[in-house]
Amino acid sequence: MRKLGLSLVLFCVYLNVVAQHRVSGIVKDKETGEVLVGANVIIEGTGRGATSDLSGNFEIRNVPGGEFTLNITYLGYERVKNTLEIPLNTPLEILLSQSGIFTEEFVVYGTRATNVTPTTFQNIQKEEIAKLNLGQDIPMLLNYTPSVVSFSDAGAGVGYTGLRIRGTDQTRINVTVNGIPMNDAESHGVFWVNMPDFASSVDNMQIQRGVGTSTNGAATFGASINIQTDTKQEDAYGEVDNSFGSFNTRRHTVKAGTGLIKDRWAFDARLSQISSDGYIDRGFSDLKSFFVSGGYYGDKHIFKMNVFSGAEQTYQSWEGVPEHLLESNRTFNLYTYDNQTDNYQQDHYQFIYTGEINSNWKANAALHYTYGRGYYEQFRPNDRLSSYNLQPVEIGGVSIPRMDIIRRRWLDNDFYGGVFSFNYISDNALWDVVIGGGANRYDGDHFGEIIWMQYAADVNIRDRYYDNVAIKDDKNLYIKGTFEATEGLFLYGDLQWRGVDYSFDGVNNDLRDISGQVNYNFFNPKFGLTYQTATGKSWYASYAVANREPVRRDFTDSPIIDRAPQAENLQNIEMGLKVNQRNFAYNLNVYYMKYRDQLVLTGQLNDVGAYVRDNVDDSYRLGVELDGSYKLSSKFSIGGNIAVSRNKISSFTEFLDDYSTEDFFQEEVNYTNTDIAFSPNVVGSAILDFRPFKNAEVSLLNKYVGSQFMDNTMNENRMLDSFWTTDLRLNYALRPRFVNNLEFTVMVYNIFNRLYEPNGYTFSYFVAGEGNVGRELVTENFYYPMAGTNFLAGVKVRF
Q: Where does the record place the TonB-dependent receptor plug domain (predicted)?
């Protein structure tokens, strides 16, 4: 009996040791009591852990009994370690204090709107980006944000992609990374294809719709996207992220970081490779990139260095699909030459300082340098030698003025400068003032080469048939501030001066001398107010002005126009209400954007037959936007947005080519009160999330874009049809003992196989009528169709 009793005691002890228990609790801010979402809770030595959810709660299952150390970390807060005796009788309440180490959030403070800034904006966190990030470019990941329309030349979201916000195209959307301008100084565009898999190195983004706040770089002229790259990680980590899918799409990403070394140093790195055959025939992409970051994190100062690069080769799918082939051959590509490719690499270097001077003043400064170089190669059948400043080739007494040619057009540029800001907050916190600015220089070389000819001519392989250089200096200074006039009422002011000096010299690709110089001085004021109530509501209203210089082509093509292109002016009024309650939140805003001298394509030709843009005197955008989310239960939530707008040009003159007679001329057609091109009157999205069990999520993502015209004539024969698409997303994460996190994601795009085209272009002309009697109008439309039902699936492992 004694042996049996001893055996039972030992057996009970054994059961207690091997029994599996549960550790749960909530993570809060020690000072405010607010719950903290996304805090990491790890039981050391077990491989077990969890992340706090939207309510700040966490739960770790299958924990053995005994004494363990609980490790809790959250960005911007002090690390907490607690010794626990498991099993626990009650859930834990973990209180974290804000870190004494200066955080990186001030790096982007000068370019960001806050909760008291009277403008329309949306913040997008790393977790939201990661749910969609399977290798597509950033415009595709932003497709479900308010008033956004995304598109892809190759039809699958990899390669050349773009977006419009409120109908505003990419050349009018200002993009910064860590407060440093990313828009091309001459075209004003952002070529996301040169930043493959950049989303994997993004910590958060803010999209400002309308003029927004003063930013470093080109003036915002309709919207801005402010990006902050990955911030320091408290602990060392490694991450492997692979995805694959339709059209032979592959993405391979490896990330690693040291965590904080001696509580002061941290280093991170990413290496990515993306390839895809594309939906469009031969529309392949071969993309490579890396991101390396290192920093010193003191109590009051941070010094950080970022180096990132992207190299791309894409087969050209720029021409689009002719309208008559949309039903029979949606994947048609005009080009068949095997090396009809675009080849470009862009290297970025950023040195960033941010620090606390004293209790009232903070400072931020950054130096940057970008080196870009590359070319696109084209096969030109039966091309004119005169287009390359060459005489006809004489062979056997026969003069040959045309022949097959392969050419390369090059761009080799340097972009460098600095940005800075100082932030003053008064002792009583009534004043919050930012003084900042920047100075940047662009030095670009444009040239072209013939690398092959059907018959030998008097030209060497490295001879340049055109060559021109451009230098652009862009300087800006601003002061902006918020003053709390009474409890809950904040007054806002923002004054910006921007100076532009732009010179270009040499011969353009149409063999014209384009030498010239222009100078601009812009003043961009902004004023507004915000009123916050004790019930979680925030009202705001603002008036802002933005001015923008024409892009490169407006100057290089302008000699034939009676007057030089004028700078564009925008006056923007924003009014809105923001509500944030326990289970629901929404934002409602009204905007009015009035343009003077907006530059648009009219069909007018210059003296060598290139289409040019001209200023229209008066145009506007007027709209209402609503976005929100509602938590129906612990398992269901719904969110979405809708924008209804009216986008008009008061008067517009179209120029139509007339080939109906021997004497070519352009006919003018006048229009009044027409829609602005590529500006749908309705854009919306809706997302339904279902969480069937812990760490699993099923989402239906819907997008609707109303019909939009491809030019400013409101001609229904030159229109993109409305479309509604639905995507399905599956996410599941678990924490097995051998890794910190294992996550699976599947995205099925366009599950109902809709045929739609979010982008295109059009042109029209007159030809002689049947039997050369009279004339008839011919309209040619070209579209960029998106793929039908397709998928991407990914596996992410974090160590």
A: 117-222
**Same-domain pairing of 428 and 534:** yes
**CA torsion angle 572 761 411 340 (round to 10):** 150
The first and second tokens of residue 664, run together, are: 């070519």
Amino acid sitting at position 502: Y
**Which of 96, 119, 154 corresponds to the end of one domain?**
96
What does residue 508 show for φ and ψ, rounded to 5 degrees? -80, 175
Sign of the C-alpha dihedral computed for residues 144, 146, 152 and 157 taken in this order: negative
Of 508, 402, 503, residue with least CA distance to 465: 508
Tokens 């239960």, residue located: 633
What are 236-264's pLDDT values in tens digits?
Answer: 999 999 999 999 999 999 999 999 999 89
Taking the model in full, what pTM does it have?
0.87
Better-predicted residue by pLDDT, 38 or 39: 39
Rounded distance between C-alpha atoms, residue 179 and residue 226, angstroms: 7
Number of domains in the chain: 3
Question: How does pLDDT run across 194-238, given as a tens digit for each residue?
Answer: 999 999 999 999 999 999 887 766 667 889 999 999 998 888 999
The answer to whether residue 2 is domain-embedded is no
Q: Which two tokens stand for residue 522?
A: 């812009």
User: Measured between alpha carbons, how far is 686 from 147 in angstroms, rounded to an integer?
Assistant: 12
Residue 509: inside a domain, yes or no?
yes
User: CA 595 to CA 494: how far, in whole Å?
Assistant: 20
7 occurs within a structural domain: no
d(CA 491, CA 18): 62
Return the CATH number at 264: 2.40.170.20
Residue 22 sits in which domain range? 12-96
Contact 170, 161 (CB under 8 A): no
Q: Over the stretch 534-587, which tens digit does the pLDDT of each residue have?
A: 777 899 999 999 999 999 988 887 654 455 789 999 999 999 999 987 788 899
The backbone region for 389, taken as left when phi is positive above 0, alpha when psi lies in -120 to 50, beta otherwise, is left
State percent of the chain over pLDDT 70.
94
Same domain, residue pair 224 and 111: yes
Asked whether 125 and 218 are in contact (CB, 8 A), the reply is no
**How far, in Å, CA of 660 to CA of 424, rounded?**
68
Identify the CA nearest to 65 among candidates 25, 15, 10, 8. Answer: 15
In a domain, 214, yes or no: yes
CA-nearest of 384, 365, 342, 366 to 159 is 342
Q: What is the CATH number of the domain that holds 64?
A: 2.60.40.1120
Q: Which helix (H) or strand (E) holds 556?
A: helix 552-556
Cβ contacts of 772 within 8 Å, gap of 6 or more: none
